[in-house]
Here is the input.
Amino acid sequence: MYGGSFAIAWACSDSRLKAIAPFYAMNPRPLEAVARSCPVVGSYPGEDFTAKPAQRLDTTLTQHQVEHDIKIYPGTKHSFFNDQGKTYDAAASQDAWQRVLAYFQEHI
Here is the structure.
């Protein structure tokens, strides 16, 4: 699992990947490259510049029939998953982690 923007781009070009879990990541360019992606379970903060790209990613994955679970957590900020940071959100982090574990158990 790799959580950054690199993971999405990597998933579009490496068939060895079985699932990815981006957290507050930016999308690859062109976005249509995700048509070749493995399944994606993504977690994004609602109060962040990555929220709109997450919505576009969700729509594009749906259009290309790529299995995915993209969730935007309302009221959270960038780095909500970092338990050492100022914007840590325990409830969102716990939910995101459980989604990742369940998704990976299903796909890996």
Remarks:
- The chain is about 35% helix and 10% strand.
- The chain has a mean pLDDT of 93.
